[in-house]
Design brief:
By secondary structure, this protein is α/β, with parallel strands linked by helices. The protein has three domains: about 10-150 and about 270-340, 3-Layer(bba) Sandwich (FAD/NAD(P)-binding domain), CATH 3.50.50; about 165-270, FAD/NAD(P)-binding domain; about 360-475, Enolase-like, domain 1 (2-Layer Sandwich). The protein has helices at about 50, 55-70, 85-110, 190-200, 220-230, 325-340, 385-390, 420, 425-430, 450-475, and strands at about 10-20, 35-40, 115-120, 125, 130-135, 140-145, 150, 165, 180-185, 205, 235, 240-245, 250-255, 260, 265, 270-275, 300-305, 305-315, 355, 360-365, 375-380, 395-400, 410-415. It starts with 10 loop residues before the first strand and ends with a helix.
């Protein structure tokens, strides 16, 4: 192979896709007439969700849920011996599956689809249609999709990397569980890993800068979650990391004066878009202050507010949500628009739900009570249903935020077991623009089941709206 010096003529493709996650899902049989370059420089092919995000973490969470359920069985009248956690077996189960899927996905694209060429190295943009790799290979795309994802944000603390310092990617593949772990961060990733490792017997301390964990969510949800978390692992809020050193032992020093000697540290303080490593900053496209690519409803990249012909972006490089289901929807939009440029589609199908798989689960979408002054707010506790009695649950709830004039849901917030499932009928109602009036009465809700929590919340909302309407009518 001739030496690549970056000056050779580029390999020309009809379509270049940068990113092997949701961008990879764009390719189907309808693209068989196009020459396609697929660029994925990740350690494992297939993107973050498969290899270092949603899927492996939820497989770990399930083990943690089973272990924690066993530990919490005594109030129900069952005494279950302490669970013995085999970390090596757990890790093998998780990555034995995801790594096989990753390898099969790579072989499928690289060997079985003749019109697709896979490049497994890093590229930077030299223009919006041309990229050059670290080895000097050039590719040119008549059309380009940027779907390069995001990466864990680094902690701004001066310490050399080492096997005792982790991000959300490396922590899942550690050889053995640490005896103790400090988790830095108070968001979704941090609280999920706090549940995973505490349930598996690791002594966890979570340190968050905000006054509560999940502080960006509904205030009642954040307060309830923080209280529940503090019964399972050590929680330190309102504190910043001043330094981390290994002078005698791995030591985390906080600005509160507290010192924590620990076996390992997990940095989970958010994620950053990969736009900076792609060399996009000097190409004249519009970027958000946090570095994300600005796009329109059709996922077209913008320059000076106008769409750039033939250049699309999706997922974490452009979306503020950093959620796989959002990236998948955007990939379907881009797929359609590449195939049907004369009949483009775009826009979101409704409010974006998010689920956090910690203990307890949290799910939410839309406005919080704080964000919607004047809204009707309904809170229904799990403990008011037969399913809640079965769980002996006294702290979980479903909270609705409703427009008093239209009866439509402005937001919904659920904290407790199966929250990620219970949120869906509320997402559907909001996406379809339905009023809560008559919604609970329009269908059967199995009894006794978890969904009765949602049913009762909707009935409460309908009753509250009727009371408001009656007061208005009386005044008139």
């Amino acid at each position: 192979m001739p030496e690549r010096d970056g000056s050779a003529e580029p390999l020309v493709f009809d379509l270049v896709i940068v990113g092997g996650g949701s961008g990879n899902s764009i390719i189907n049989r309808e693209f068989s007439h196009l020459s396609i370059a697929l660029i994925d420089d990740g350690e494992h092919f297939g993107g973050t969700c498969l290899n270092a995000g949603c899927i492996p973490t939820k497989m770990l969470v399930h083990v943690a849920d089973v272990t924690a359920d066993a530990a919490d069985a005594a109030p129900l009248g069952a005494t279950i011996p302490d669970a013995v956690v085999d970390w090596s077996a757990i890790r093998h189960r998780v990555f034995g599956r995801t790594d096989r899927v990753s390898e099969a996905g790579f072989r499928n694209r690289d060997e079985k689809i003749p019109n697709v060429t896979v490049f497994r190295e890093s590229f930077r943009f030299e223009s919006l249609h041309e990229l050059v790799s670290t080895s000097g290979l050039r590719v040119h795309g008549h059309r380009v999709v940027i779907a390069a994802g995001s990466r864990p944000r680094e902690l701004d603390v001066d310490i050399e990397p080492g096997p005792d310092l982790h991000d959300s990617t490396s922590i899942m593949r550690i050889a053995e569980l640490p005896k103790s772990l400090v988790i830095l961060g108070g968001g979704a990733v941090a609280v999920e890993f706090a549940h995973v490792f505490s349930a598996m017997g690791v002594r966890v301390t979570q340190v968050a800068r905000a006054p509560r964990l999940l502080d960006g969510l509904d205030a009642d949800v954040a307060a309830a979650f923080t209280a529940r978390a503090a019964t399972q692992w050590a929680v330190v809020t309102g504190a910043k990391v001043r330094s981390i050193d290994r002078a005698e032992a791995l030591t985390v020093r906080l600005d509160t004066g507290e010192t924590i000697v620990v076996s390992a540290v997990l940095v989970a303080v958010g994620r950053v878009s990969n736009t900076d490593v792609l060399g996009l900053g000097s190409l004249g496209i519009d970027l958000h202050p946090d570095g994300r690519i600005a796009v329109d409803d059709e996922q077209r990249v913008l320059s000076d507010g106008a769409p750039v012909e033939g250049i699309f972006a999706l997922g974490d490089v452009s979306s503020a949500w950093q959620l796989k289901h959002v990236a998948n929807h955007e990939a379907r939009v881009v797929q359609h628009n590449l195939l049907n440029p004369e009949n483009p589609v775009g826009g979101a199908p409704g409010p974006v739900p998010a689920a956090i798989f910690s203990r307890p689960q949290v799910a939410h979408f839309g406005l919080t009570e704080r964000d919607a002054p004047g809204a009707v707010v309904i809170t229904r506790d799990y403990s008011t249903t037969a399913w809640g009695w079965a769980l002996e649950d006294t702290s979980s709830f479903c909270k609705l935020v409703i427009d008093p004039d239209t009866g439509r849901l402005l937001g919904a917030h659920v904290i407790g077991p199966e929250a990620s499932t219970l949120i869906q009928p509320l997402v559907m109602a909001a996406s379809l623009g339905l009023s809560v009036r008559g919604l609970a009465r329009s269908m059967y809700w199995p009894h006794p089941s978890a969904t009765e929590i949602v049913e009762n919340a909707l009935l409460d909302a309908e009753s509250k709206l009727d009371q408001i309407a009656q007061k208005v009518s009386t005044k008139v």
